[in-house]
Amino acid sequence: MFSIQTFIRPHLLSLKPYSSARDEFEGEASVYLDANENNLGSLAGGVDYNRYPDPYQKTIKEKLSKLKGVRPEQIFIGNGSDEAIDLLVRLVCEPGKDEVLLLPPTYGMYEVSANIHHIGIQRVPLDEHFQPVFEKIAEKQTERTKILFLCSPNNPTGNSLAPNTVEKLIRSFNGLVVVDEAYIDFTDTPSWSTRLDEFPNLVVLQTLSKAWGMAGLRLGMAFASPEIIGFLNKIKPPYNINAVTQELVSEALDKTAQLGDMLDVIIQERTRLMEAFATLPLMEKVYPSDANFVLVQVPNANDLYGYLLKRGVVVRNRSTQPGCANCVRITVGTPPENDHLLEALQTYAAQNSA
């Protein structure tokens, strides 16, 4: 049976976390003289911002608990999901000794975080359908392999990973399995967060940057056992989510009906783009997508990227990623933005077929 206690870096087990003023006093008072705040107010638009924010984001967690079907003690809130990735690496990986396992092509911050902390990296490429190969992954794990990162729906390919394979990996992997679900809202695939109680080694990442349209606020979530969440809270900075973000996110979480309307538009536009791409001769392959972007393969990704840039359209050239030769990742825009993109692609196709 997996026990996070055996994976935590030994010196962190006994770490005494920083105790902030808001840790030591919760409640209401008429005069606050405990946190060295400026009691005269704030120059940032209101007196509220002169006070430190809730270090554990209790209001947001209560709302997320109802929305996601998990308990508040199973939720970690980070400055983007990148903070959770960084903290997980720091929590269980000894620099210069341990390693993480990645399945390229995948989200680049897993590798960056490992490199920052001098953690080894093992790689098992996804297959030709961008799916994990269980046997090859199992062969790569050693006693030094502490985290397996899975991105589903995957970035930059857009597809969801096969649930049966993901479950086999969670059950068999002797370490943390982190399933990054940044794009989960754009698919009907159930979140792995609904199965946290089955798998003590499972961590699920989500974000408000994509479907919720709050990339500029930088708020990500990790869902895991209360024990894992407790350790993440122990090693995080004391006030990692600012007051403005907490206020705006709390308001946004009450607008699930509007979220549904936005998702409908994005998914409809994704379908429209994919159907249009399929008719263009320059598109050698249009990959299936469960995200808010579409990966396409073209004869010359560098040339297409440069052409679109001259037309005022910025896409992402993913040609350097394993298995993505001459591939371009195109985010689903607004209907007028997508009209502009398609007109540019049609012109480019006509010019290159002459």
Automatic annotation (TrEMBL):
The keyword Hydrolase does not apply. It comes from the Bacteria. The modification N6-(pyridoxal phosphate)lysine is found at residue 210. This is Histidinol-phosphate aminotransferase. InterPro entries: Aminotrans_II_pyridoxalP_BS (IPR001917), Aminotransferase_I/II_large (IPR004839), HisP_aminotrans (IPR005861), PyrdxlP-dep_Trfase (IPR015424), PyrdxlP-dep_Trfase_major (IPR015421), PyrdxlP-dep_Trfase_small (IPR015422). The keyword Membrane does not apply. Keywords: Amino-acid biosynthesis, Aminotransferase, Histidine biosynthesis, Pyridoxal phosphate, Transferase. Pathway: Amino-acid biosynthesis; L-histidine biosynthesis; L-histidine from 5-phospho-alpha-D-ribose 1-diphosphate: step 7/9; Lipid metabolism. Its cofactor is pyridoxal 5'-phosphate. Homodimer. CDD domains: AAT_like (cd00609). The lineage of its organism: Bacteria, Pseudomonadati, Bacteroidota, Cytophagia, Cytophagales. GO terms for molecular function: histidinol-phosphate transaminase activity. Residues 46-345 form the Aminotransferase class I/classII large domain. Its EC number is 2.6.1.9. Pfam families: Aminotran_1_2. Belongs to the class-II pyridoxal-phosphate-dependent aminotransferase family. Histidinol-phosphate aminotransferase subfamily. It catalyses: L-histidinol phosphate + 2-oxoglutarate = 3-(imidazol-4-yl)-2-oxopropyl phosphate + L-glutamate.
